[in-house]
Amino acid sequence: MPSLRHLEILRAVIRAGGVNGAARSLHLAPSTVSVQLAGLARSLGTPLLRRRGRGLEPTAAGLAAAEAAGEALEAVARVLAAVDEAGPGVLPVGAAEDVPQAVVASVFAPALAVPRPPRLHLHVDHPARLFDDLAGGGLAAVLADRAPPPELDPHARVHRLTAAAVAFLAAPALARRLGRGFPRLLDGAPILLPEPGDALRRRLDQWFEEARVKPRIAVETDDPELRRRFAVAGAGVLPAPASGAERDGLVRLGLAGGVEERWWLISRRASRDPALAAVLAATRRGA
């Protein structure tokens, strides 16, 4: 099903006569425009553009789609204006599945503190899919554990949040069993880790190698809250933000020196949206 953003891109390409001109007018990378156009053609089941010299021109189907899109976009603009006058709307945002729930809540909570708070629609997914939704206009902002790819949008607003030191946490009974002598106590200890390929996992694997310890992997999962549940049950040692040591009764065994959890907030919508502006302002104060 084509989105309005797809149709807006099609109209821009027809006006500009090519991908590069459309990309400049929409403040998108040319590769993003090409991907969105290909997706639109697949969803409609027919070619929408054809080569003409060095540029592109619409097929009959493309021209019909662009004309209908213009009417649809005008109708949507009228609807949005009416909704804005009637009351607060919806703020669609995304959070990468590896970002802890506490971080997600703290980042987006300012959106609900404005005088007329919107309904916060929060979508949790893999970062790559969230970045695609952001580029396609389906999301106003994305909170992720990695920086966006350079081709996402040269004009995207990228805010790096304050990094958090990583500590090794354990349930009291497990901490007593492991004894003293950090980091040697981690050698052979059961540990709860993100799956291979995760940004934090890569940094931790390097730290283990440099510290010359080899923990025994008890659980691998990209769900940070599930890893914490296992830690509370005493199933293993949990690498997590140091500030969360006291939560759920876990105790700190030591710090992973030089290893940090990092998060980025990426937005495209203009900050005239008061709810998103509040989120971005809070992010800048905390950076």
Keywords:
single chain; 287 residues; alpha/beta; Arc Repressor Mutant, subunit A; D-Maltodextrin-Binding Protein, domain 2; elongated
Task: Provide a descriptive summary of the structure in words.
This protein has 3 domains: 81 residues, Arc Repressor Mutant, subunit A; 99 residues, Periplasmic binding protein-like II (D-Maltodextrin-Binding Protein, domain 2); 98 residues, 3-Layer(aba) Sandwich (D-Maltodextrin-Binding Protein, domain 2), CATH 3.40.190. 43% of the residues lie in helices and 23% in strands. The protein contains 10 helices and 12 strands. It has a 5-stranded mixed sheet, sandwiched between helices. Strand 1 and strand 2 form a beta hairpin.
Biggest β-sheet: count, sense, barrel? 5 strands, mixed
Strand fraction equals: 15-25%
* Mass-distribution shape: elongated
Report low-confidence residues grouped into runs of 5 or more. Answer: none
Distance between the termini: 39 Å
**Could you give me the name of the CATH homologous superfamily of the largest domain?**
Periplasmic binding protein-like II
Total helix count? 10
Radius of gyration: 24 Å
Quickly give the structural class.
alpha/beta
Mean pLDDT: 83
Q: Which strands sit side by side, in order, in the main sheet?
A: 4-3-5-12-6
What is the level-2 CATH architecture name of the largest domain? 3-Layer(aba) Sandwich
Number of strand segments: 12
What fold name goes in the CATH topology slot of the largest domain? D-Maltodextrin-Binding Protein, domain 2
CATH class of the largest domain: Alpha Beta
